[in-house]
Amino acid sequence: MELTTVWFALVAALFVGYFVLEGFDFGVGILLPVLGRDDKQRRVLINTIGPVWDGNEVWIITAGGAMFAAFPEWYATLFSGFYLPLLLILVALILRGVAFEYRGKRPDPHWKARWDTAIFFGSLLPAVLWGIAVANIARGVPLDANHEYTGGLLDLLNPYALLGGLTTLALFVTHGAVFLALKTTGDIRARANALAGRVGVAAAALAAAFLTWTAPAGLALLCAVAAVAALVGALIANRRGREGWAFLGTATGIALAVATLFAGLYPDVLPSTVDPAHGLTVDNAAATPYTLRILTWVAAFFAPLVLLYQGWTYWVFRRRLDISHIPD
Amino acid sequence: MDALDVARWQFGVTTVYHFLFVPLTIGLSTLVAVLQTVWLRTGDERYLRLTKFYGKLFLINFAMGIVTGIVQEFQFGMNWSDYSRFVGDIFGAPLAIEALLAFFLESTFLGLWIFGWDRLPKRVHLACIWIAAIGSTVSAYFILAANSWMQNPVGYRVDPETGRAELTDFMAVLTNKVTLITFPHTIAGAFLVAGALMTAVGLWHLMRHRTEEFRPAVKLGAWVTLIAAATVAVTGDTQGKIMTEVQPMKMAAAEALYQTEQPAAFSVLTVGTLDGSREIFALKIPYLLSWLGTGDPNGTVHGIDDLQAQYTAQYGPGDYSPVIPVTYWTFRLMIGLGMAGALIALIALWAQRRGRIPTNRWLLRSTLALPVLPLLANISGWIFTEMGRQPWLVFGEMLTRDGVSRSVSLTEVLTSFTAFTLLYAALAAVEVKLLLRYARAGLPDVAPVSSDEEDRPLAFAY
Fold it and tell me: Pairing between strand A280-281 and B266-272?
């Protein structure tokens, strides 16, 4: 297999990892004011992702770095083209990250309330905007002959991309609710389970509509069908109170939905809606074979290690949480 | 004002802001790991309390370090897309490797350390903070390799067809002589800041509240500061020689040296116009610049005017000198502030010798300045390094003005510049207040860590 294909798959895998892992982080953040009725409950919610959110976030940083290294043209065009949405995402991620760490540093309820707001919007904005961004990558954007983005902000807010944003939002909220049902006990667990059942139906419907509009074929079609099936399976498992299976279902659903977009995209990385010849492909956007070879060795060595120790973290903090576990 | 100016200001502001937190993260993670190691080996509970105390300060700082770092990863593509296209084949690799090797390690194991006090066996828990500390040091190496490539590009060729720089020798990039000297210099600078902070906070508690438990922290911090200062000086000297060789314009600009001199004198302080037209007062040490730059007291140091003429002949017409007042003063501030910090640490170490508790009012007041001085020295050093490279983005290959994103409008850059500056300013105020609050609060009580029962509260929760 060509190394450019390998790296396309690796970048796609990093996005899949990011959406699966940060998906429930965003969901938990969005559900903070919904499922957290008092300070203790909100702390239970935040602490379900406490030890892992930072490691989850590194997936997107690595995805950005991998794009820069393996497909510099893709990185340059994408990030200068999607300028304002990316700015909003960055501001949101800054506020959210600081909020997790600073929220409990003062006992003042106003202080906590302000950081809770930051966690909510800091999770909501990226949950929608990443969907919009990825949908635009799949659909293509106006590029000129130099592969420069020529559209404005409104070009990014087309109906297909907005549906994509809504889909990721619904998926992440469901994923977060299922994760909370898996990681807590008592009152929060019951309410998270009920909420996952309700939002999950909308998420599965939105995902089906969005993926249909994407019009996948071949491998992508297979991914799309399996994605929707996994989401439906998650809903059934959730109804039966099988939380582990439900979480596996939403995780698989999200992973396959992202895989659908990337599989449908290949061999393009950023198609042009103006002229197909202006688009970026794995060939014209890639780094040199020498660079790709070095990167491949490094990734082959260290990526499995990362999976291993991140998996171990989840094992260490596998215990369910309840308000009785929250220290004063 | 055009998009290029704003993009430069934005990169400057966001990078300087990021680097306010980076040295503390690198230095303090290791020092906290040392404290925890001592606790585990001696069983002395003082060290556990110190670990938790400084660990808290470290984490308040670390949160800001992370979030400001995310911006940097994307800013190349957002504001400097033509640069990213030109260098992506080379510059992207260390960035991607940094994320895969170091960021994952740092973030995952720090999460384990923060929440794992009662979840992990003591030795495994200690290993977590060491791994996180190693992770942040490794990340510094890769990002410095990327930056050093811009200062002194090696291991590449420019493809005549695409006009892009292509990697030809990755080992050459990793062993760039600028990288090899910038890395120890930067790490030593980081320990200078962290050691100074540890000393200052400990000394303040020792003097104000006579809290004897802080004495080991004062000693450790002060020794680290002094050793770091010596390392900074030695590596800085070597770095100066390499800089004179690979970027002679930067060395000339550091000294505002207009005419080539042999031997060249080191300007300690020059009052006058820095364009070289008029000198009112100058304090100079003869031979020193020649020795610093070349290792030979009679060595030749090229002046700005001659280099300008040489570059014009080589690269065509243009202005090839950086903003001289900035390079001249940041070079002096870097050295002066850093050494002032080390001097205070030395006085602190002397004043608390043999169980004494110092009472000098000036020493107490200086605890406020002690961590700030080396921090500003770090910042000055980076401003000197980066602005001394101007007008080049990649020395000899790409001018800064050619690297900016063409598809990004002035309004867009202004929006992001304003957003980041305001957000960062607000967060800086919050962070400083929190740091002061927790630094003043003193040592925390430590509850004994019990065995693993289901319904006991967590040892730590957000």
Answer: unpaired
Q: Tell me which residue of B303, B304, B300, B281 sits closest to B292, measured CA to CA.
A: B300
Give the N- to C-terminal CA distance of chain B in Å, as an integer. 44
- Antiparallel, parallel or unpaired: β B279-285 and B266-272: antiparallel
Q: Say how far apart CA B211 and CA B206 lie, in whole Å.
A: 5
Structure tokens belonging to residue B56: 């808290």
Task: Classify residue B162 as left (phi > 0), alpha (psi -120 to 50) or beta.
Answer: alpha
CA nearest to A309, candidates B31, B25, B117, B113: B113
Length of chain A: 328
CA B88 to chain centre: 24
CA B48, A115, A131, A244 torsion-angle sign: positive
For A197-249, how does the pLDDT look when each residue is reduced to its tens digit (9 = 90+)?
Answer: 999 999 999 999 999 999 888 899 999 999 999 999 999 999 998 999 999 99
pLDDT confidence of residue A112: 93
Task: Round the average pLDDT of chain B to a whole number and report it.
Answer: 88
Tell whether the model's pLDDT for residue B201 goes beyond 80.
yes
Cβ of A66 within 8 Å of Cβ of B63? The answer is: no
Question: Which amino acid is located at A189 in the chain?
Answer: R
**Are the C-beta atoms of residues A204 and A238 closer than 8 Å to each other?**
no
Question: Does the CB of B229 have a partner CB in chain A at under 8 Å?
Answer: no
The residue behind tokens 């690979």 is B246
In the chain, the amino acid numbered B426 is: A
Chain B residues 32-91 within an 8 A CB cutoff of chain A: 59-60, 62-64, 66-71, 73-74, 76-79, 81-82, 84-85, 87-91
Do B93 and A313 count as a contact with CB atoms less than 8 A apart? no
> Is the CB of B116 less than 8 angstroms away from the CB of A64?
no
**Number of H helices and number of E strands within chain B?**
15, 6
Q: How far apart are CA B461 and CA A322, in angstroms?
A: 12
Contacts of A130 in chain B (CB under 8 A): none
For chain B, what is the radius of gyration of the CA atoms?
A: 24
Cross-chain Cβ contact B167/A288 below 8 Å: yes
Backbone phi, psi, residue B302, to 5°: -75, 145
Q: Calculate mean pLDDT across residues A97-126.
A: 94
Tokens 């370090």 correspond to what residue?
B65
CA dist B181 to B142, B175, B242, B248, B381, Å?
A: 13, 10, 9, 17, 14
Task: For residue B34, give how far its alpha carbon lies from the nearest alpha carbon of chain A (Å).
Answer: 22
Q: How many other β-carbons are positioned within 10 Å of the β-carbon of residue B63?
A: 22
Q: How far is CA B279 from CA B261, B262, B301, B346, in A?
A: 17, 20, 20, 36
> Cα separations (Å) of B88 from A193, B156, B159, B182, B393?
46, 12, 13, 22, 13
Supply B130's token pair. 């060491």
Burial class (CB in 10 A: 0-12, 13-18, 19+), B298: exposed
For residue B372, what are its two tokens?
Answer: 């700030």
Q: How far is CA A278 from CA A74, A275, B88, in A?
A: 12, 6, 20
CB B442 within 8 A of CB B32: no
User: In this complex, do B95 and A65 lie within 8 Å of one another by their Cβ atoms?
Assistant: yes
Can you name the residues that pair with B282 across neighbouring β-strands? Answer: B270
Q: Which amino acid is at B102?
A: A
Both tokens of residue B139? 């990340």
- pLDDT digits over B290-321, tens only? 877 777 877 777 888 888 888 888 888 888 88
Tell whether the model's pLDDT for residue B408 goes beyond 90.
no
CA-to-CA distance for A150 and A172, rounded, in angstroms? 31
